[in-house]
Design goal:
heterodimer, A: 701 residues, alpha/beta, 5 domains, 3-stranded mixed sheet, 28 helices, B: 268 residues, Rossmann fold, 2 domains, 5-stranded parallel sheet, 9 strands, 16% strand, elongated
Chain lengths: 701, 268
Amino acid sequence: MAHPSPLSEDAIRQRLDRLLEVEFSFRDTSLPAAAIARLPATQQAWLLEWVQRVASTHVELGYQLACKGVEASRLMSAESFAEWLYHAMDRYDAEGLRPALLVLEHYPEFAAEQQARRQGALLRNHEGVLNRFLQGLSGRPLKLAEAEVIFTDSETLYLPTLQSLLPTPQQNFELYKVSCALLWAQIRFGTLRALLREPSIEEPFLQLFHALESLRLEACLERELPGLHRSLLQLEQALGSTLPEPWEVLRKGLSAPDVDASDVIRMAHQNLGQLSPYPARGYQGTLKPERVRSCMEHRVQREKARFRVGLNTLLEDLKPADRAEAAETPRLHASQGEDQDVFSGEIEILLDDMPLPLPEAMQSLKRSILLDLGEIPDDYLQPAGPGEYDPSLLQDESRDADDVWHGSYHEEGAWLYDEWDFQRSHYRRNWCAMRERQITPVYDDFVNNTLQRHHGLIKHLRKTFEALRHENRRLKRQREGEDVDLDALVEALSNAHLGFEMSDRLLTRMQRNERNIAVIFMVDMSGSTKGWINDAERESLILLCEALESLGDRYAIYGFSGMTRKRCELFPVKRFDETYDDEVKARISGIRPQDYTRMGFAIRHLSALLRETEARTRILITLSDGKPDDYDGYRGQYGIEDTRRALVEARRSGVHPYCITIDEQARDYLPHLYGPAAYSVVDDVRSLPLKVSDIYRRLTT
Amino acid sequence: MRSFRLDEYRIEEEPFYQPTGDEITLFEAAYHNQLPILLKGPTGCGKTRFMEYMAWRLQRPLITVSCHDDLTASDLVGRYLVKGGETVWIDGPLTQAVKAGGICYLDEIVEARKDTMVVIHPLADDRRVLPVEKLGTLIEAEPEFAIAISYNPGYQSVLKDLKQSTRQRFVALEFNYPTPELEQAIIVRESGLDESRARGLVKFAAMTRNLKGSGLEEGASTRLLVHAAKLMVAGVSPLSACRGAVAQALTDDPEMLASVNELSSSLF
């Protein structure tokens, strides 16, 4: 169809009426239909398709798009247009209809912002690079976050979402970089420390101090990072900002290497009221001492606790016996180098005048403490038992999944996974909240009964699996090798006697044939497995473990279930690093049917786990009784398409997915999900235990 | 056919080695007491250079074997080869060193196959004998013979760890990246680069070492810095030298590369 003819207004109106369910509402499609009818045919088709995709999320959104689409498409490129709609749908997913409608409503602003985006740099796109850049600079992890103004609270650097002051993306990225470096310099060269020593901070003083201090920091950067300072100067030029006359003179004074932040504080006090700060340059931020104070207080306390407890364990490791005898506490003190600079001056912790070697974690704690305080105060050097402090100071917070469920729902601490919406042809961002939950181990005779009942089968399985184990093989007739191959030698010698050329393949070599396989079994724990399917699954797992133990492959078992996207659950039965012991056996015995079958998140999470495992072959085997199905619309085509997408992602990242199922209708959809080769349907539930091991054997040879 | 002539393994000229602690005294004391030595430390921090230096200092031939995952015991001990219709026994590097009283240095020992331990263990305790299974003999080591192995504890793979039974036979010397001043001196000495750019390189290395564990497996080693310095001396711009000799050598991840390059371009 080279030039399809445009649809008539009536036809468009009918189509819109159908898409937007006009029958059941009071929506009027005549105006949008008239507007769309004036478009060329390809444009019409394109726009109507978008209306369809958006209406699949919410009809009202589709209607609004139909009304505004023609106008909006004039303002935006096709790419920005798609971006706009995805943004609206993401807002709908995250916050509901009203914010999404607002996004659609404000399309001119969005179009303008898109323009800025094209020339600007997005923090989101550069976060990774900037993060590592900062980690490289500072040695202590600094977080990046989005905010309206540029500032730091000494732990997080706040930067604008979009930087578009300069005409090209590259320059705007440079702006980010220079802002980062200046904020880092505030931490590194003592700005924040000096500022917090001030008893009260008035706004005019703060601004003047910041203006002066920025010049000092720029000079510090010039000394430390000359390359960065060069790009700072270029930016200054590009931004067209020049310093007023008196400031140029001040800059010279502030650039001396021996000026420190407390000198600048004094200067600011002296000149308060006489000097007005120059206009801030685009990469400069602001100072927010109150944010720094609260953040620092918390950290200082935490690090003090960790440092002292760390010292204690260190000392106990060093001389366990001596200390018990000599009741006196060991003398610890910090060597203050000549050099006051906390970075170049090596401050060492001395134990009875001998330097105490600090492990990596303590080193970074020490560095962080020095950054905050500029020294190691004496009371930090009193080793403390862990009992002296609130344990919450010593550990990063983590929440028990069960507790979270009992409270009101929030996404804190959960893994968030995208989900594929086939109607939208796009992901729903961070849609599933996944948590790991524990299976209550059941110590009963299920395992023993299974082992007894399948006694003969297990013996058989062990034997076949052991045969799989690739023992070292001796290769004969090799050019290189550790031993002489006598057969080959005799043959070669007789050949030589007969006047033939003598072969040089006379050695034998041991060849290692290592199985290098990591496999995760993903077991359906949905409610529909209740009864004999659950029993068969558990029996299969027992047999499988018995067989795999003799094979030596690395394996893990996880159960999956859930109810709605907000409660996706994985149940670790056996992790990679756990051994097949009584606890694991009891967990297998304790596998109980739970709720629904949402598969996408489980596949995404487990294939991520597999990717972290070092192995040549990575396999993800799903044991299931039916197609994907969940309470909140995760059924039919939606569920199948999301699962398929997750499998495609897994395959792309080097994981081989395989499905074993007992769903008789599975032949309809499994080829679509796994591809025709990568699944088996087991017709008889009773044969599942045997089949699973058998399939695994075939799969890995 | 290959043959080993031990004299070729003698080191005539003094190799440059900058001591960072008391490792020379320790090594000498261990050597004179016939104790085997284990060198620990990240790659490129001077372990091999240290061995060369010590071999020169003690005037013993040094036989270095770089271990790989196909290295077997017979690669170390020796094997029969067929030569003109007859089988001939050829000593492996370890046997050579044992017989001639040289120093055998097994680099990255964890990479070798497990069966090599069978021949290393009896050499590394007070028996000091090398069993040659195929000849059915035990060779007693000369008094001057020494065995040294190296390993990098930074590899966090469970498969590549030294067993306790092995580690507890050795006197361990820990190596680490030298202090900034020393490292700068080493770069200047090895490459002839000027002080200020060498200082920049050392700072750059510290930044990459900060990234260890957050995307980089290892920070830049002294060896890489020397490479970069040599490139700079040859007229390559500091940025391209850091990019080629350090950044690309450290990682393939494009985002990481960008970050490391930003760091170097901030410095130079």
